[in-house]
Amino acid sequence: MCSTQKSLMATEYSTEVRMEPIEHRFNPYQDNGGTILGIAGEDFAVLAGDTRQTVGYSIDSRYEPKVHDVGDNLLLSANGFSADGVELVKVFESQLKWYHFDNNKKMLVHSAARLIQHMLYKKRMFPYYVSTILAGLDEEGKGAVYSFDPVGSYEREQCRAGGAAASLIMPFLDNQVNFKHQMDPESKGTKRRPLKYLSLDEVIELVRDAFSSATERHIEVGDGLQILIVTKDGVRKEYYPLKRD
Amino acid sequence: MPGLSFENFQRNEYLVNQAGFKPPRATSTGTTIVGCRFKDGVVIAADTRATTGPIVADKNCEKLHRISPKIWCAGAGTAADTEMVTQLIQSNLELHSMSLNREPRVVSAMQMLKQHLFKYQGQVGAYLIVAGVDPTGPHLFSIQAHGSTDIGYYMSLGSGSLAAIAVLERDWKQDLSKDEAMKLCATAIQAGIFNDLGSGSNVDMCVMEMGKDAQLYRSFMTPNVREKKQRNYKFARGTTAVLRQSVFDIVEVVKEEEIPVGSSDAMDVDH
Amino acid sequence: MDSINVDVGHLKKGEISMGTSIMAVTFKDGVILGADSRTTSGSYVANRVTDKLTELQDNIWCCRSGSAADTQAVADIVRYQLDLFKTMNGRSPSTRLSASIFQEICYNNKDSLTAGIICAGYDKGKGGQVFTVPLGGSMHQHEYAISGSGSVFIYGYCKENYKPDMTKQETIDFMKTSLSQAIRWDGSSGGVIRMVLLTADGVERLIFYPEEYNEELKD
């Protein structure tokens, strides 16, 4: 928000606004709420998202899946402004098709990540209003999660939450996946708890708890949870209902 | 000085307009509240979610306030305003009824509320449904923050009022029984709970019937019980980092020495 | 907005308004007040069965338009002043006095009020009387008056069809047609048509439902 807009703001603490002419312009963006979450395991990766789509205080849809199996053992989700998210995934799928025609081979996850960076940065001056997460398996068969900001800055991570309740879920993940702020009980609080890969069952439990908790405290999260799991055998989908209030 | 304090007005004006400071957000009860009359009584109901922006501040808050034993009110808008304005009118109505030696009337509560809210020109953001029974019968009113009032057989207020009024307009009929009215209100609130993001959790209800004590049904319905968590998040003892350790004696122990009374040895100092 | 240029469209944020169709008409036996029943908050109909005809004394009533909060508050004050007048002087206040009190309040607080009022009453000496107190706080006497956002559509009809000293039935029919057309063309007006008849016989209330007043809803 720029400073001239601030002066036009009337709040419950200050009723006075500057009487400057207000510029009315079409706002091309919208916030459709929702949250996504990706976690990488030793030989798998999961990408999960709730299925509620909102605008303001209304629910547009209780089931609008936003995590996509885009082929080549890759999972992609772009959360934020849903129209941009859908567009990004569509363009990616098209680009992937051309990659196959041109190179006649599967796209690797790190290549997909770099491609997405370019797709996002191409719209640097009129960005896709989304936080994007890509999940797949790397060349060694290890789980990989890549997260992107709206204009293409990206990073490979062990886990990442994006969207409306990202700030609620991320600290939980830091604690439960990367064992942040946890000491080894054996050491009586003197040595850090050693890192270890979580099993797929443990990860799914964590994801379900993360989303049911986010549903409790964030009004834009709820209705349903879809979890897509990628292993060397392919992509599997799971669905769990969430609270609808 | 009685009344509200405006001593920080100028400072806040500066902070918002010049220093680019974001003002704190008050907890709003992005709410669904309804009221409905029946044969010889009236019922009001509310959801129990309180929000600050998109975050749920309270999952089970009370939006039904008592003004007098048989006059209750449901509040939407700024949580603090609905609470305080209700308490103020509760006190004044009690004093009023004591000085007249009569049971308090719903119209009195309504008139006091609307005059207070009109005085503050909408700055006190309380949107209320006032209902109750008094010697003149059952009554149901709604009051907007600017001080306007409406009378009706059924009404809804708050962010979920559109979802609720849809149900009320569809199902309401003249001369409902008490149970029918309660059921109608519960359905209307649930429409708000499930279709309005500002409303959620449980249904609270209050029934006021002529010649009977008012009945408050806290958690009349609980359609949103949380399922059991998949994992157990109890941390093992020793998980918390120990950075420093120091042990204090809570009581300082002073050694007492007993000196026998009249002992010449102890008193004899000049040897 | 300043004291000279009154912003007609000015309403406080989120305020409930009565984009209204109201009228009052004198006739042979007294006066009739009429109004639609719609109250809006933006495009939302906050109340579809509003009673915009407000009693000030047994024989003096008013039609309210503008901000619901403002007009209710002003009407409450006027009612109080008239009650006080009656107890202090031991006689009933006149219609003109009622309108004058409205006028005084609306004039003195014109910067903060959005209130357009038609005040009408019946008394044995002067029969039916109609006064309007528009936004700036002036006062005008008429044989009949129309006001509110819906009134702009029926100025011509009323001018052509009003006759002095109509019968009760003629007046009711005239008002029913006028208000039904105001409601027909004004989106901020709607619901039922309410009327209050003030004559030597006292007060009579009438209500007309859309199925009756709206020709387009008849078979």
From TrEMBL, chain A:
Gene3D superfamilies: Glutamine Phosphoribosylpyrophosphate, subunit 1, domain 1. SUPFAM superfamilies: N-terminal nucleophile aminohydrolases (Ntn hydrolases). Component of the proteasome, a multicatalytic proteinase complex which is characterized by its ability to cleave peptides with Arg, Phe, Tyr, Leu, and Glu adjacent to the leaving group at neutral or slightly basic pH. The proteasome has an ATP-dependent proteolytic activity. Keywords: Cytoplasm, Nucleus, Proteasome. The gene is PRE7. It is found in: Cytoplasm; Nucleus. Transmembrane segments: none annotated. GO terms for biological process: proteasomal ubiquitin-independent protein catabolic process; proteasome-mediated ubiquitin-dependent protein catabolic process. PROSITE patterns: PROTEASOME_BETA_1, PROTEASOME_BETA_2. Pfam families: Proteasome. The keyword Cytoplasm applies. The 26S proteasome consists of a 20S proteasome core and two 19S regulatory subunits. The 20S proteasome core is composed of 28 subunits that are arranged in four stacked rings, resulting in a barrel-shaped structure. The two end rings are each formed by seven alpha subunits, and the two central rings are each formed by seven beta subunits. The catalytic chamber with the active sites is on the inside of the barrel. This is Proteasome subunit beta. GO terms for cellular component: cytoplasm; nucleus; proteasome core complex, beta-subunit complex. InterPro entries: Ntn_hydrolases_N, Proteasome_bsu_CS, Proteasome_sua/b, Proteasome_suB-type. Belongs to the peptidase T1B family. It comes from Eeniella nana.
Automatic annotation (TrEMBL), chain B:
GO terms for molecular function: threonine-type endopeptidase activity. PROSITE patterns: PROTEASOME_BETA_2 (PS51476). The keyword Cytoplasm applies. Its EC number is 3.4.25.1. Keywords: Cytoplasm, Hydrolase, Nucleus, Protease, Proteasome, Threonine protease. The active site is at 31 (nucleophile). It is found in: Nucleus. It is an enzyme of class 3 (hydrolase). One of its GO terms (biological process) is proteasomal ubiquitin-independent protein catabolic process. InterPro entries: Ntn_hydrolases_N (IPR029055), Pept_T1A_subB (IPR000243), Proteasome_bsu_C (IPR024689), Proteasome_sua/b (IPR001353), Proteasome_suB-type (IPR023333). It catalyses: Cleavage of peptide bonds with very broad specificity. One of its GO terms (cellular component) is cytoplasm. Transmembrane segments: none annotated. Residues 223-258 form the Proteasome beta subunit C-terminal domain. It holds the Pfam family Pr_beta_C. It comes from the Eukaryota. The 26S proteasome consists of a 20S proteasome core and two 19S regulatory subunits. The 20S proteasome core is composed of 28 subunits that are arranged in four stacked rings, resulting in a barrel-shaped structure. The two end rings are each formed by seven alpha subunits, and the two central rings are each formed by seven beta subunits. The catalytic chamber with the active sites is on the inside of the barrel. This is proteasome endopeptidase complex. It comes from Eeniella nana.
UniProtKB/TrEMBL annotation, chain C:
One of its GO terms (biological process) is proteasomal ubiquitin-independent protein catabolic process. GO terms for cellular component: cytoplasm; nucleus; proteasome core complex, beta-subunit complex. Keywords: Cytoplasm, Hydrolase, Nucleus, Protease, Proteasome, Threonine protease, Zymogen. PROSITE patterns: PROTEASOME_BETA_1, PROTEASOME_BETA_2. Its main location: cytoplasm. Coiled coil: none annotated. The active site is at residue 20. InterPro entries: Ntn_hydrolases_N, Pept_T1A_subB, Proteasome_bsu_CS, Proteasome_sua/b, Proteasome_suB-type. One of its GO terms (molecular function) is threonine-type endopeptidase activity. Gene3D superfamilies: Glutamine Phosphoribosylpyrophosphate, subunit 1, domain 1. It is found in: Cytoplasm; Nucleus. It comes from the Eukaryota. It catalyses: Cleavage of peptide bonds with very broad specificity. Belongs to the peptidase T1B family. The 26S proteasome consists of a 20S proteasome core and two 19S regulatory subunits. The 20S proteasome core is composed of 28 subunits that are arranged in four stacked rings, resulting in a barrel-shaped structure. The two end rings are each formed by seven alpha subunits, and the two central rings are each formed by seven beta subunits. The catalytic chamber with the active sites is on the inside of the barrel. Component of the proteasome, a multicatalytic proteinase complex which is characterized by its ability to cleave peptides with Arg, Phe, Tyr, Leu, and Glu adjacent to the leaving group at neutral or slightly basic pH. The proteasome has an ATP-dependent proteolytic activity. This is Proteasome subunit beta. It comes from Eeniella nana. The gene is PRE3.
